[in-house]
Amino acid sequence: xxxxxxxxxxxxxxxxxxxxxxxxxxxxxxxxxxxxxxxxxxxxxxxxxxxxxxxxxxxxxxxxxxxxxxxxxxxxxxxxxxxxxxxxxxxxxxxxxxxxxxxxxxxxxxxxxxxxxxxxxxxxxxxxxxxxxxxxxxxxxxxxxxxxxxxxxxxxxxxxxxxxxxxxxxxxxxxxxxxxxxxxxxxxxxxxxxxxxxxxxxxxxxxxxxxxxxxxxxxxxxxxxxxxxxxxxxxxxxxxxxxxxxxxxxxxxxxxxxxxxxxxxxxxxxxxxxxxxxxxxxxxxxxxxxxxxxxxxxxxxxxxxxxxxxxxxxxxxxxxxxxxxxxxxxxxxxxxxxxxxxxxxxxxxxxxxxxxxxxxxxxxxxxxxxxxxxxxxxxxxxxxxxxxxxxxxxxxxxxxxxxxxxxxxxxxxxxxxxxxxxxxxxxxxxxxxxxxxxxxxxxxxxxxxxxxxxxxxxxxxxxxxxxxxxxxxxxxxxxxxxxxxxxxxxxxxxxxxxxxxxxxxxxxxxxxxxxxxxxxxxxxxxxxxxxxxxxxxxxxxxxxxxxxxxxxxxxxxxxxxxxxxxxxxxxxxxxxxxxxxxxxxxxxxxx
Length: 591
Known about the structure:
3 domains; Pyrimidine Nucleoside Phosphorylase, Chain A, domain 2; Rossmann fold; 4-stranded mixed β-sheet; 23 helices; 21 strands; alpha/beta; Aldehyde Oxidoreductase, domain 3
C-alpha cells in the first residue's frame, strides 16, 4: 500500500490554523485522515488545542524512549509529535499535524510525502485577531508581525491557504487544498475545489460546473469560496471559457436580423441615464436594439428603475419580443429574462467583501448579450476614484478585455473608457433621472448638456457600426438629426406605449429640502458615492420621487449660501435622515 501524505500545517499566530483544522476534522473521513495529537508540556486544562499533557521530566523520558517523530521548543514549552504517525502513513492514511515551520527540514528527512500547508492572512487581519485575543500589547503584536521567516528547504512542497474571510470559507479552502493535492475530491466538487485551491480550469471543466451552479446544486461556503477565487485569479483563457459556458446556459434569442445592437454601461456614476436616450435614437434610425437592464444595487436608481417611472419593465419574453417587433427596441428589466443564480450570489458577496469583480463581469455581461441575441455591443466603462474602475488606464485595459472576449464569442464589441468623476445629468433617483431623459429627447432648453453630449457620443459609435452610416462623424450627424426632428422622442413614446405606459407621478406631492454651500469656492469634485447615498437615504429607488436634484456641476463657482442641490422624498422621516446625512457630508468638494 502506498504511503499516505503528511500535511504539516504552519502559519503565524492569528492565521487561524486551529479553527481550520477543527472544521476539517468534522468533515474528513477518520479512516482516511488522522489528526495528530501533540504532546505539550502544559496542563491539560490550560485551554487551546486538545493535547497530551505532561511534565518536562516526562517529556524528556518519552523523547529518550523514541516515542516522538519530532520535537521542538516554543514559548517556553516543549512540543512533540508521536512516532506512531509513521505507522498511519505506512498504512495509507493521511496525517494532518499542527507544527512549526522551523521543523520542516527535519521532518522532510523523516517522513515520506511531506506537504507543508501554510495558513496565512493579510497583516491587518492578523493584527486584528491578535489584538482581540488580548494576550499581547500592541507593541508585542507589531513586533510579532514584523518577524521575518526563513525560506523553506529547497524542494519542499508548499500549499498556501488564505484565511481572510469567514471561518466557513477558510475551512472550505483548507479542504479544497487537501483534496486537490490528493486528487480525491468527491466528483461533484472536484472542479469547484480545484479552482478554490488556486488552480486554473479548462472550458471542459467549467461547463458542467457552471451548469450545476446555475441549477443550484452548490450553495453556502463552497459556492462563495469558488466565486471569490474567480475574482482573484482568472486567466484570459479561463475568462473566455467562462463566457462561452455561461452563454450556453440560456437559449440564444433569434431576432431574424443580421445586426442586433446593444449598449451597456458598467455604471457606478450617479444619474447617467445615457442608455435611455441612446435606445430611442437607434430605434428611430431603424436598427434593432432590444435592451434589458438591471435595477439599482447600490445606487439611487438603475436604468430599469428610471424606465419604470415611464413604462412597465417587468416584461415576459413574449411581450418583450412583441414590443421589439413594433418599435425596434425595448428598455426592460433583465430579472426575468437574463436571471442568473451565479450573479445573484456574486452580487451578494461583492460589496461586503469588497471584491474586484471587473474581470468576472466581462464574462457575465457578454454572455448575457450573446444570449439576448446581440451581434454588436458598445460598452461604456466610466472611471473615477470612487467608482468601480479607478483610473483611465484600468478602464482602457478592461475595454481591451471586453473586445477580446467579445471576439471569442463571435460578437463585435467596442468598449470605451469615459470620465466618471462627476454625475451625468442633474437628477439622481428614478423620477428625476427619467425627467432628464425626456428633456433631452424633447430638446428642452433645460436638458442637461452633459447627458446630451454623452448620449450623442455613444449613439454615434453605435450608428457608425451600420454600413449605411459608416463613420462616427456621420453617426453624430444622424443622431442629432433624429433628436432635432423629434423622431427619437416619437420612438421613445412608442416604446413606452408598447411596454405599457405608467400613470404620471404627482410631482407636487414631493417633499424638498435645499442644501446650500457653506463657503465660497469652485466645485473641485462631486463624490458620487455620497450623492447616491443621499438619494437612497431619501428613499430611492423604492420611492420613485426620492433623490437628489443637482443645481450646479463640476467646475462651477459658488458663493456661500448658493444652492448646491435639492433633496427630494415622499416620506418626511426619510427626508430628515437624508438632510442629517448631507449636513455631515454634502458630497461637494470646494476649493
